[in-house]
Design a protein that fits this description.
154 residues; alpha+beta; Ubiquitin Conjugating Enzyme; five-stranded antiparallel beta sheet; UBC core domain-containing protein
């Protein structure tokens, strides 16, 4: 009962009062949300709209939600299937998930990851190497990819 109340409260807040650059839609199932994230202003993803799928597991908040990009992204921490490599999406001891993290905090962290890749924990090693050693080329490719695959919000 308590989980259901928390989840309903979090989803209602996300839908009614979303953080800047984030839009959430509930699906027919309580445990599935569609999330739209606008690329951060100071990144190659600026102005692009990315769709994500957020699936809330039965044991939430004791286990992290499953979050993946539906829109393809050129990024060292997001693979071609949309999976995201981020500490907050992993259980301890290797990850940083805590039951106190809200859905809103998690989505904002993913939006932040777009603008601040972590090349030390990549899913896409070749893109991480490019980010480290040829950032100009990385930014060019990321911007082009975002323009081709994301919806334009500018």
């Amino acid at each position: 009962m308590q989980k259901s109340q928390r989840l309903n409260r979090e989803i209602k807040r996300l839908i009614d009062h979303p953080p800047e650059g984030i839009i959430c839609y509930a699906s027919d199932k309580l445990n599935l949300l569609t999330v739209n994230v606008i690329g951060p202003h100071d990144s190659p993803y600026k102005g692009a709209l990315f769709e994500l799928e957020l699936e809330i597991p039965e044991r939430y908040p004791f286990v992290p939600p499953h979050l993946k990009f539906i829109t393809p992204v050129y990024h060292p921490n997001i693979d071609t299937q949309g999976r995201i490599c981020m500490d907050l999406l992993k259980m301890p001891p290797n990850g940083g998930w805590k039951p106190t993290i809200s859905l809103e905090n998690l989505i904002v962290a993913v939006q932040s990851l777009l603008g601040n890749p972590n090349p030390d924990d990549p899913l896409m090693v070749d893109i991480a190497e490019e980010y480290r050693f040829n950032k100009t080329e990385f930014e060019r490719k990321a911007k082009k990819y975002a323009q081709e695959n994301g919806k334009n919000c500018d």
